Amino acid sequence: MLNLNQLYQGFRDPETIKTLAHKIRKEALKVTDNINIMEVCGGHTHTIMKYGLNQLLPEHIDFIHGPGCPVCIMPKERIDHAAALASLPGVILVTLGDMIRIPGSEGSLAEFRSRGCDIRPIYDPLDTLRIAKENPDKTVIFFAIGFETSTPMTAVLIEQAEIQRIDNLLFHINHVLVPPAIDAVMADSNVRVNAFIGPAHVSVISGAKVYRSAVENYAIPVVVSGFEPVDVMESILRITQQVASRVAKLDIQYSRSVTEHGNLMAQAKIEKYFKVRPSFRWRGLGPIPDSALMLKEVYRHRDAEYKYADRLPVREIDDHKACQCGDILRGLSKPKHCKVFGRGCTPQTPLGSCMVSSEGACNAYYRYNGV
């Protein structure tokens, strides 16, 4: 069994990074066209910016930042759902930490909390069970977010609520799926992406197999990468080698944690409690068919979105006109191209979700790009 040190030890070695950079530059000499790589996950964006990996590459290899930050892609109307639920008498709203700072149409959850709503940010979703047990006279609603990575944990929460008969615990489900988002990016007529770095943690759960259709449908390389700088550089090398050889295939660089088929037990948990939602509106990408999950009918007694449907707003709300988060999430722009980046929009005073989230592209550029 791997221990924690084995997952990153040696994967930040400067000499190894330099050697990989040299190999990439040598291989890139065989390529005349631009290689535009979308790293789907915000964790990869932060690695690239923190370690300056983009500065080690030839000019015709470029990074395009994708919609892989679960907080960033949450549209304002879903934040408004959370605010509406938290405003109900006798409700405790529980959600993950970054979520409370994302602005909705009438303010962030942090602002609603300052107005007296009982909103509790957590870092361990299992704390939700404790909160529900300690407050039997309250309705506790878990505002669940995340890609395939965090979905099994929500499934475990539902399972434990059922087993322990914690009847005052409900769920508002906002779990989304990576493959439909890739399809949405590639469907844009202005798309420049011709290779993907596949997300690591998502792939541990879903398996690399979920990206096979992207390779087949768009004839582009997909390399599933770990988060360390050596991981990312090796993945770029593998992509460059594929482009130079004029092939496109699915490759697993992060083989110490990712397999073709993924975590079958976690997938079974997801299958038991969730079904695919017909459509979900992503911030920046708009409605994407079959791109999110919802509770199955048999667990509707725990579905806050169903139970409080008449109390939840239905109007779709776009971002602030000055904010370019939508274009950034679609891979059509970069944070430095936004007029308010680093001026009116900072981590302390964010206008958009890409700056709020610790995984957001704007946040990464602000932290590591000398702003």
Summarize this structure briefly.
37% of the residues lie in helices and 19% in strands.
Short descriptors:
371 residues, alpha/beta, 5-stranded parallel β-sheet, 4-stranded parallel β-sheet
Counted by DSSP, the helix tally is 16
Write out the strand line-up for the largest beta sheet, numbering strands in chain order. Answer: 2-1-7-8-9
**General form:** globular
N-to-C series of helices and strands: HHEHEHEHEHEHEHEHHEHEHEEHHHH
Average pLDDT level: 93
Strand residue content:
15-25%
What is the C-alpha radius of gyration, as a whole number of Å? 21 Å
Major beta-sheet overview: 5 strands, parallel
Please count the beta strands (DSSP E, at least 2 residues each).
Answer: 11
Helix content class: 25-40%
C-alpha termini separation:
42 Å
Which blocks of ≥5 consecutive residues have pLDDT under 50? Answer: none
Describe it:
37% of the residues lie in helices and 19% in strands. By secondary structure, the chain is α/β, with parallel strands linked by helices. Strands 2-1-7-8-9 form a five-stranded parallel β-sheet. Strand 5 (139-146), helix 7 and strand 6 (169-175) form a beta-alpha-beta unit. The radius of gyration is 21 Å and the shape is globular. The N and C termini lie far apart (42 Å).
